[in-house]
Amino acid sequence: MAGIHIDTDIGGDIDDLCALALVLGWPGAELVGVTTVAEHSGHRAGYVRYVLGLAGRSDVPFAAGADASEGFYREFPLLPKGEDEYWPGGVESRPSPLGDALDLLEQSIRRGAVVCAIGPYTNLALLEKRSPGILREARLCLMGGFVYAPREGFPPWDYKGDYNVQVDAESARVVFDNAANPTLVTLAVTAETALRASQLDALKEGDALARLVATQAEVYAATEHRAAEYAHRYAGVPQDFINYQHDPLACAVALGWDEGVETEELRLKSTVEDGWLVQRVEDDGSPTKVVTRVDGPAFDDLWLRTVTGKQK
């Protein structure tokens, strides 16, 4: 493939870290760039630098994108509490001009890389406004979009729970209106993935990045209590549940993993109604590839084997 570019709000939920670890461990994958979104003066970019350093990949360019202070967001995107527990040794912010992030995104698009957006779509919308028509050229894989509800046995989320889209609905509308046949990895399928406590021992036996994932997973489990919130209420969620793997699944799809997913091409029309982005299947909608089914356990196993370097 021509490479993959990750656009991330790393430092909120821990699945962004899990996604970067997957891409960095994926055999043959070329990570051509990383941009951050919903920034805190370059602090998320500092997280990216930390991860790339652990992976020995200081060659990968990265840049800080749209800042949370600029008023794009429905709710203010936060950084984790207890940062030193999540990021041992602390993190140094890496601020840079917004134009640097947009330049890096444009460069990745021009070279034919897949851009996998695993945070709000603010950077992509700003790039389209700066360089009209560029999203028509882009190969986009987006974590987000809401077409179908999750299956029975999983949380009954509706479109308002689609964070990446709804936290900056206007940017999402710009992207959906201008992108040419993007791939959407939606909540309905990511609801069937899981980071689990039973995976931690294998992660702890891995390299420095795998061990960081294990560290963050333990901190997250101890502070967020997602097992009580989800595993004890929904039959499809494993009892040792820690967190959903929303972003890693999107990255796997962007990297071409199709053994455990089903995809349908739909015509989607996206409108902002009362501040919320709503998507409907309509004859005059834009062609969109939508992942409609995933083999969750198969993906969870793939993720663990990739991050720990134990590919079959």
In the CATH classification, which architecture applies?
Answer: Alpha-Beta Complex
Mass-distribution shape? globular
Under CATH, the topology can be stated as: Inosine-uridine Nucleoside N-ribohydrolase, Chain A
Number of helices: 14
Low-confidence stretches: none
CATH top level label: Alpha Beta
Give the full name of the CATH homologous superfamily.
Ribonucleoside hydrolase-like
Number of domains: 1
- Specify the helix fraction band: 25-40%
Derived structural class: alpha/beta
Q: What amount of the residues lies in strands?
A: 15-25%
- How many beta-strand runs? 11
| Radius of gyration, whole Å | 18 Å
Characterize the largest beta sheet: strand count, sense, and whether it forms a barrel.
9 strands, mixed
Task: State the end-to-end CA separation.
Answer: 21 Å
Averaging pLDDT over every residue, what do you get?
96
Order of helices and strands: EHEHEHHEHHEHHEHEHHHEHEEEH
Task: Record the strand order, biggest sheet.
Answer: 3-2-1-4-5-6-11-9-10
Could you characterize what this model shows?
With 312 residues, this protein is α/β, with parallel strands linked by helices. The protein has a single domain, classed as Alpha-Beta Complex (Inosine-uridine Nucleoside N-ribohydrolase, Chain A), CATH 3.90.245. The chain is built from 14 helices and eleven strands. Strands 3-2-1-4-5-6-11-9-10 form a nine-stranded mixed sheet, with helices on both faces. A two-stranded antiparallel ribbon has the order 7-8. A hairpin with a 2-residue loop joins strand 9 (261-273) and strand 10 (276-281). The longest helix has 17 residues, at 208-224. The chain is globular. The two termini are 21 Å apart. 52% of the residues are buried. The model has no long low-confidence stretch (mean pLDDT 96).
